[in-house]
Amino acid sequence: MKTLNYSHTLLPYIPFFYVIWSDDLLSASEIEVVKKTVSEDDGLTATDRKILLSWLDKKHPPKNEEIKHWQQLISKSGVTLIESETYPLEAFSQKVAAFYSHTEVKNSNLRNIEINLGIQPNHYSYLFHVDVVHQVSATTYDAKEIDSIFNHAHRGEIENIRTFLQDPIFEWGVHRPKEQARKRVLEQLKALANEGWGALAYPKAYGGKGSLEAYAVIFEYLMFVDGSLAIKFGVQFGLFGGSVQSLGTQKHHDAYLKQTGEAQLLGCFAMTETGHGSNVRGIKTTATYVHQDRHLVIHTPGKNDNKEYIGNAMDSKMASVFAQLIVNGKNQGVHAVLVPLRDEKHQTLPGIRVEDNGYKLGLNGVDNGKIWFNQVQVPVANLLDKYGSIDANGHYQSAIKNPNKRFFTMLGTLVGGRICVAKGALAGAKMALTIAIKHALKRRQFNDSIKIQEDLLMDYPSHQLRLIPKVATSYVYHTVLQRAMEVYANGQTDKRKIETQVAGLKAVITWFATDTIQECREACGGKGYLLENRIADLKNDTDIFTTFEGDNTVLLQLAAKGVLSDFKSELNSDGFVGVLKLLSSRLTDKLATINPAYSNKVDKDHLYNPKFHLHAMDFRLRRLTDSAAMRIRGYIKKGIPSYQAFLKVQTHLLQVGRAYSDVLAVKWYYDFVAQQPNEPYQKLLRQMGALHSLSIIREHATWYLEEGYLGSTKSKAIRQRVERLSTELRPHINTLVDGYGIPEKLLTAPIAS
Amino acid sequence: MKTLNYSHTLLPYIPFFYVIWSDDLLSASEIEVVKKTVSEDDGLTATDRKILLSWLDKKHPPKNEEIKHWQQLISKSGVTLIESETYPLEAFSQKVAAFYSHTEVKNSNLRNIEINLGIQPNHYSYLFHVDVVHQVSATTYDAKEIDSIFNHAHRGEIENIRTFLQDPIFEWGVHRPKEQARKRVLEQLKALANEGWGALAYPKAYGGKGSLEAYAVIFEYLMFVDGSLAIKFGVQFGLFGGSVQSLGTQKHHDAYLKQTGEAQLLGCFAMTETGHGSNVRGIKTTATYVHQDRHLVIHTPGKNDNKEYIGNAMDSKMASVFAQLIVNGKNQGVHAVLVPLRDEKHQTLPGIRVEDNGYKLGLNGVDNGKIWFNQVQVPVANLLDKYGSIDANGHYQSAIKNPNKRFFTMLGTLVGGRICVAKGALAGAKMALTIAIKHALKRRQFNDSIKIQEDLLMDYPSHQLRLIPKVATSYVYHTVLQRAMEVYANGQTDKRKIETQVAGLKAVITWFATDTIQECREACGGKGYLLENRIADLKNDTDIFTTFEGDNTVLLQLAAKGVLSDFKSELNSDGFVGVLKLLSSRLTDKLATINPAYSNKVDKDHLYNPKFHLHAMDFRLRRLTDSAAMRIRGYIKKGIPSYQAFLKVQTHLLQVGRAYSDVLAVKWYYDFVAQQPNEPYQKLLRQMGALHSLSIIREHATWYLEEGYLGSTKSKAIRQRVERLSTELRPHINTLVDGYGIPEKLLTAPIAS
């Protein structure tokens, strides 16, 4: 093999140049890195340097024959590539150079290129016809460190719950008949309550720690046990207990909160009706006040007015019933009333009828039921009266005069539940990703005809692209939900604002979970279809998360209306018109036209820059909001009623809601990254941020191209960068899924072990 | 109310102009329609005509104040809009005009506009503040006629199976323990076999009708009963029986085919192994020929080499086992051998081990299992020897000399199965769409504050957009699968070509089903989550369709490789290189640059024109194929091994496979439409074709914009047209889902009744 007379100092550069030119992603900044290294390498002769620099001219790239010669030179050296070396390409190159020059070659300049270009063995090992000592996973990062970065707050609770859930009572198993599954979940619920986990969010006086945040943090771990357990837990302690805590006053707390936290009193949250799910304000159940002996009559008036899908309905002794409160013949709007359902022998009380909702797609360990009330009397003291009460004279009293505002204040208690639902969905996605990725790191299929061993699934580009961006997104959403709960629990912001934020995030994150778990199921092929591998249950259990605690389509419109009314105006449609006038003039000024140089800027530094990501997200939100407002105004000016005008732009509003959630997630994530002191990990976090952001931009590339924000070249470059970043994160992917901190004992899927 | 002095002849035009201008979709051809009507209306004065024509100038549209005045004029007339009138807007307009002019107004010119612009009550009824007598569904089309258009071939069998499935044995129910579900499905299978349904595809001599097409046609209906029944049926009669029929010779037919068709002999198709699913050629089970007493030894060599997910494994007496055939120490490649599994008492035979695969996400009525063979001896006669046999001297013989070609010929028998899987998936999607749409035509939620009744879900634009395009696509795919089966069954084309076609179609259609059923579940909210409403089972049962009978990702690559090799070259990677050289020169010539006038042509006539749809699809396929070929060539020229070069463009190849399937579907669909003699129905079919095609183009709009095929304006116009077409089909949507012809008795979902 002749080496085209390359000198022994130039020779170690050959594998580097081969790797660089076999790909098409060399950006200006990357060329600079190589140029600098070559210029500063004192071992090179002037001729060598000239040759090397000539190979960096993108306009006159090395000829294919030359590149092919490099490939043969490398392959025929017989040198083995060892991926576990600290600088594998440097070490490999030196050995190749030594082979041809018959002298030891040392050149530590090379690692500059290797480090700064982020060249990893999985980028190039397949380019050479050489033996490779493979590594399934790099050791650059430590999963424990990632876990501690992302799960820093309430660390004590996290470690305790991780340990506690190793109790055999939480072991996974198949329980097909619903009665069996429900029995098991109820036992698990009680075990948690006994250890004080149920009461976490309640005040200390009632056995809790007064920490809604800690409650939300541990909620995630219950999903790893069983979706039904998480939901049963959420209904009992979060929804039922939460309604007593947030809508009730001290008399209710004293009477019920401790028992509820201990699961001595089981309760349900009876809001949804067969005829009214999304439109809570339209529910038909009535609570009519009778002054004579100061009681309330709870009644189901019509055929479809019964409560439905009420979790914990079969086990509960009491329900927090949402009903239209009628006082002196006047409807004061929706209020919650505590209604006993069953006696000590668990017989339903007079006037109460409960029916099992039967089998569902998933969550069959949760006892959902329908409830009818036939003129059921309860004392007026059972009215959860924090925001509205009936005084001794039988007059309705409320500190919030506006009935609309009162309604939304009461519904505000659902915000915590929405965050938990999103957390639960995300936990499901994390678990499915862990299983699919661990499987792909073991499973091999197909090979080059030369090799004996087949290729790992994880080394297929299509497999990387389907799973790795989702891991990045899962980390983004993890930090975002933590912040949302922090903001909500500590009342750090205007209530309406956090409601808008959570409405959007809940929709986007639960949809992300549905997509991700589906992708994981398919990525595991037939194995993913077996119940024992857990993805099936995660898929079925989380499926309803896009519907309950607010249907996603409705929530995105809620978020959009929040954006349109600039978080200030009231949410009824009439209130909008005034705001819109203001809005459309205000926004248009701020929208700069996009410079063509910007819309075609494809440099890596630019594409990976958080500023670009935030700018792109923000541009989308502003432009969409502006155009929605303009369209609505246009219709209204032509005499179309405002309700109908909003309906005409409904699909547009969904896009506004989504854009809003995208901005929020990326912004909060980068805030989080900026706070991390550990530089190497900060780099990893930035890579994930870039992958997430570019994936989102890519998803909406049609819109960006239509608006001229992206030019063709940039749009294509973003696609290539998404693929490249996925490949760059490939060596760390096992560490990243371990970083979720899912207790090994709960990860029972045989394909993941 | 003053009427701005509009004459009584001009007055009836007002509602028309209000409807036209309250929307933004007026195209040049539509303006022509109105102009023509106005010009030909002899009742108008010259002044009227001038005013009306001035209102058609898109550059100087009527002022908002004027439009608003029209709206008030209409609303204050107090006239009720009756949707069931033949020409509701004409009738309404005349009444409004009569109210203000105090004289009877008749103007039958108006209906020209109403008909030619396709203006329907659901476009405009909400624009006026008037009382509306609503229609849930229009009566323009007849569901029976649609059914007969789409289900014309094998009509006798269709009607018979629809009737037969009303037998109580096919009634839907919840069977949670798998043993119960399997027992039920086995009984149903036998009931079908008793009536001759199982043998349909076999020759008459064995109890059949020799019609694979009829078999495929009725397969769809089994999905409406239960996914497990369809799969069990497919395994027994299609895969096991099919392998005997297609890979065996007369001795096998005589011995087994009749019994198989009658379900007297239950059999399974043992191809997939734990370690080898997609890579069938790499399976490890061996069938070693021993010449001494002419037998074959079937053996499972290693840990992951057992058969897995084998449907019918627990019930079968015999298996069609795929194994590497070793004759005289030489591996002759994969062949199928009939291996008895159990004796008459259903005890497994010596050397055979079968294990239940346990619970799965869905299809729990199918008994999937794992099978191990420990040196199991069978006579050499059990080799299914149509394509390869062992002669009396112990020499291997095959008419197909090339082992590669032989392998693909044997696998070709899977093509029929793939068509059936796609048909099954599509049937699942149809059933879910029917349920979701019937629910949306009853379910109401939210309203304008003025109205008492809430709005129908089906009248929300977002709901129309999520469901209606999928109905259009379902009809497109229905015709396409019928043609694929016709081509395959009658050997109308080169075998390799139909394999490529079916590979792509199976992937695209099963993914469509997964997306559609998910969308339907969410569109039904909590109701969609209940098992009784059927969507849950459809979702879980069809989920694996994207994986089995060929993983979709693998199949799309297979399709892409078929495209690249122009259906002629062999499918091993070495064979490609030569073809690629040819390909890249050939294709580039044919790709014309896109004229800017074309890339911004937004006229309705153009956007709805099948020629545009086909051109767009074809352009995408050609350009993607060309660029994939160029990239692969580029890598190979740089010395990258061809296997790795293909891997580098893997995600690109998936796009080629998808583009190929899109072209095929649209082309075949329009061929079908062209054959329909009934003009009004042809129009409906063309509307569905346009909606399907524009949805596909919209889905890939990023790519079209990047390539300059679409300009921004056209891209946006396509989005608007997708929304508009959905609204246009809204009145016919109930008729369209009824047109699927799903037997009412099988449509047991309470929300659909």
TrEMBL record, chains A, B:
Domain annotation Acyl-CoA oxidase C-terminal: ranges: 610-752
GO molecular function: acyl-CoA oxidase activity; FAD binding; fatty acid binding
Start and end residues of each Acyl-CoA dehydrogenase/oxidase N-terminal domain: 159-259
Alphabetically ordered keywords of this record: FAD, Fatty acid metabolism, Flavoprotein, Lipid metabolism, Oxidoreductase, Peroxisome
Top enzyme class: oxidoreductase
Acyl-CoA oxidase C-alpha1 domain: residues covered: 412-562
EC numbers for this chain: 1.3.3.6
Gene3D superfamilies registered for this protein in UniProt: Acyl-CoA dehydrogenase/oxidase, N-terminal domain (1.10.540.10), Butyryl-CoA Dehydrogenase, subunit A, domain 2 (2.40.110.10), Butyryl-CoA Dehydrogenase, subunit A, domain 3 (1.20.140.10)
Origin superkingdom: Bacteria
Pfam families linked: ACOX (PF01756), ACOX_C_alpha1 (PF22924), Acyl-CoA_dh_M (PF02770), Acyl-CoA_dh_N (PF02771)
Localization terms from the record: Peroxisome
Signal peptide: none
Essential cofactor(s): FAD
One of the GO BP terms on file: lipid homeostasis
InterPro entries the record matches: ACOX_C_alpha1, Acyl-CoA_Oxase/DH_mid-dom, Acyl-CoA_Oxase/DH_mid-dom_sf, Acyl-CoA_oxidase, Acyl-CoA_oxidase_C, AcylCo_DH-like_C, AcylCoA_DH/ox_N, AcylCoA_DH/ox_N_sf
Domain Acyl-CoA oxidase/dehydrogenase middle intervals: 268-376
SUPFAM superfamilies: Acyl-CoA dehydrogenase C-terminal domain-like, Acyl-CoA dehydrogenase NM domain-like
Family the entry assigns: Belongs to the acyl-CoA oxidase family.
Official protein name in the record: acyl-CoA oxidase
Species whose genome carries this gene: Croceitalea dokdonensis DOKDO 023
